[in-house]
Amino acid sequence: MNSTADTTTTSAPAAPRPTRRRRPRTGGSLPDAEGHRRDLLRQMLRIRRFEERCVELYSATKIRGFMHLYIGEEAVAVGVLASLAEDDAVVSTYREHGHALARGISMEAVMAEMFGRVTGCSRGRGGSMHIFDAGRRFYGGNAIVGGGLPLALGLALSDRMLDRDRVTACFFGDGAFAEGEFHECINLAALWRAPLLLVCENNRYAMGTPLATTHARTDLAARAASYGVEAHAVDGMDVEAVEQATREALAAIHADGAPRFLEMLTYRFRAHSMYDPDRYRDKAEIQRWRRRDPLSLLDKRMRDGGELDDAGLAALQEAVDREIAEAVDAADAAPYEPVEDLARYVLATPDEARGLTS
Amino acid sequence: MTTTATSTATATGSGTGTGSPAATPTTTTYREAMRAALREALAGDDRVFLVGEDVGRYGGSFGVSLGLLEEFGPERIRDAPLSESAFVGAGIGAALGGMRPIVEIMTVNFSLLALDQILDNAATLRHMSGGQLCVPLVIRMTTGAGRQLAAQHSHSFEGWYASIPGLRVVAPATIDDARGMLASALADPNPVVIFEHGSLYNSTGTLTDGLPRDIDTAAVRRPGTDVSVFAYGGSLGKALAAAEELAGAGLDAEVVDLRTLRPLDDATIMASVRRTHRAVVIDEAWRTGSLAAEVSARITEQAFYDLDAPVERVCSDEVPIPYAKHLEDAALPQVADVVAAVRRTVA
Predict the structure, then answer these.
(1) Is residue A133 part of a domain?
(2) Chain B residues closer than 8 Å to A152 by CB
């Protein structure tokens, strides 16, 4: 647990609320065992190597359109999603490859989506920015900044109204914090006691504009707390700090049903998108943050604890690279959706709709 | 205000405002018919809830939901802050989560604050996710002018919404449709936007049976042989009034209530044009890019050789709707404008 994790706390008043069905939870504690750390490292490595491969594939024009890389921010997705239960929901942004992979969507489905193939998780209709997997309760992939927040609020509200003991986690960035929708939604989540985990990935830039240029007060957790929502700032480069803070927040949501806010202090090492020449950042700043690379941090911690050596890391990398190679091969060989299906799924028939919502 | 929009059946009895379908025709108001539809939906399905600004304690800004808070409680008659994007989007999320939300937006002008959610989420999620999701959501909103509410409460953007794939758009103009379209909208697995013209709430008419009405078809409200007049929502009464006036002059106008604005019922529209060979389209929206433009284009595409005259449009003047009554009247389609347009088609 990093020391920044508790800088800002405001407790929501404990209002009486209807009984919720409870199921056993592990509470705020981390699952122990070195196997878990190894898994966190493996997940971060999967995201890192996957995206590095995506850059090559983009240059080779296998992937087109907008593509936003998560490199540098992997600890947030991995730490948060390691803490969520299968029946919890996830609402993500256009920078969501990491969230998708950490949620358990296969590399093959994500890669095929970026290749625009029908085997992609959205049949190739969404691309990099619109990854969906209803079965894993992964509701996109929203490319309107802030646009996923109301959706997540509604998903959480439905759990509240249907008395289901599950949580919706919504990822968004410091850019979205400037949108009116964020402020509307956190207010409503507090008012309606929606079981919503607001995960603000503060990577310090709204596209190319720095935090201090877009926010009069840059302490986002403190501002979130002003809505009566318990809020913490977390070292988003430390996957274990992220997981610890997330588990505590989830336990608190399960206990009282009220929303929680986590500000993940993080940094993207790469440009905003493949179109971005990255003129607005000091190279020294990037280097400073790279010294806190989330993979290196965990790598070092594991080596210091005797949990990892060169051979162990090489084995992890080899397995990850094999998974990526298989995903790329499968995506490259996959068919495209027939053009005759273009107008399919604009509207649902009652038969199609059965079982699609819950 | 008009009562002619509901002239399709004979008034008998008195309004009850109850939630149960009336076995015999009764007289009621558009507002009470809407309320009865809401009450029936809320009573019949625990997943249904109403959310919006002032829907609870206030009773709805136009009084539609008056009394429902007391009957169904604050969880299901959910007052929302002035956060259109958040509560409309929350309706979308709740629909994904298994609820059947009815979101009320106070006026169509305010709906623009939630347009991103309606367009980029409600209408888009299904297709963009490759068919994995659907959004069974109903959005109700007031539309239209004629009440001296000036330029930020008086517009008609039905045509804009009707241009969006992934939405269904309806405009109940009669008591029976006000009572019966909500049930069909809720039964539909897609987002359905219901436009309620503000001038209709106080209109009185006959509730035939309180049964559901389809959200797929247009309806011939007055059969005729000489010209087809197409209208919807608050303009239907004007179309019927114009038809009465024209009948006195020996012109037999057919009045078609579009009812369903997306998808448009091309079959009923073209069948009418093929009977009368003349078409006039009334639309309270601005002429440019209006729903009337779409209907006119479709008639030209599909029934050009059946036309004996160019299609006429009667739309609002292209100005922000003004407050002063004489200016507002001048800006809006009026019965005399419809009569004049019909006369041009037979000249």
Answers:
(1) yes
(2) 93
Per-residue model confidence as pLDDT tens digits over B152-179: 999 999 999 999 999 999 999 999 999 9
The tokens for A110 are: 């994500």
CB contact under 8 A, A184 and B97: no
Cβ-Cβ contacts under 8 Å between A and B: the total is 171
User: Which string of DSSP letters, residue by residue, matches B195-225?
Assistant: EEETTTTT-EEEE-------SS--EEEE--S
Specify the pLDDT at position B10.
33
Question: What pTM did the predictor assign?
Answer: 0.92
Helices (H), chain B: 30-44, 68-72, 84-96, 108-111, 115-116, 125-128, 158-161, 175-187, 236-248, 266-276, 291-303, 325-331, 335-346
What domain count does chain B have? 2
B320 touches chain A (CB under 8 A): no
Nearest to A132 among B90, B130, B136 (CB): B130
B148 and B224 in a single domain? The answer is no
Task: Considering only the beta carbons, identify the residue of A140, A157, A191 that sits closest to B94.
Answer: A157
**pLDDT tops 90 at residue A269:** yes
Mean pLDDT of chain A: 92
- Taking only the tens place, the pLDDT of each residue in A32-74 is 666 999 999 999 999 999 999 999 999 999 999 999 999 999 9
Give the one of B91, B98, B129 whose C-beta lies nearest to A134's C-beta: B129
What letter does residue A182 receive in the DSSP assignment? H
Domains in chain A, number: 1
Q: Is the ipTM of this complex over 0.90?
A: yes
A336 burial class (0-12, 13-18, 19+ CB within 10 angstroms)?
middle
Q: Domain for residue A241, yes or no?
A: yes
* Contact indicator for A192, A159 with CB cutoff of 8 Å: no
B118 touches chain A (CB under 8 A): no
Residue with tokens 């009984």: A19
Selection from A180, A120, A127, A106 nearest residue A150 by Cα: A180
Of B166, B182, B207, which residue is a domain's last?
B207
Within this chain, do residues B225 and B191 fall inside the same structural domain, yes or no?
A: no
Active site residue B158: no
CATH number at residue A106: 3.40.50.970
Check if B112 contacts A (Cβ < 8 Å).
no
Question: Given B32, B40, B153, B196, which residue is catalytic?
Answer: B153
B-chain residues within 8 Å CB-CB of A132? 128-130, 132-133
Domain for residue B340, yes or no?
yes
Subunit contact A188:B92, Cβ cutoff 8 A:
no
pLDDT tens string A252-266? 999 999 999 999 999
* Domain-located, residue B213: no
pLDDT at B296: 98
Indicate the pLDDT class of residue B22, thresholds 50, 70 and 90: low
* pLDDT of residue B5 exceeding 90: no
Say if the Cβ atoms of A133 and B132 lie within 8 Å.
Answer: yes
Q: Show which of B166, B184, B207 is a domain's final residue.
A: B207
Tell me which residue range forms the domain holding A102. Answer: 38-331
- Does the N-terminal peptide bond of residue B263 adopt cis geometry, omega within 30 degrees of 0? yes
Instruction: With CB atoms and an 8 Å threshold, state whether A139 touches B133.
Output: yes
Residue B287 falls within a domain, yes or no? yes
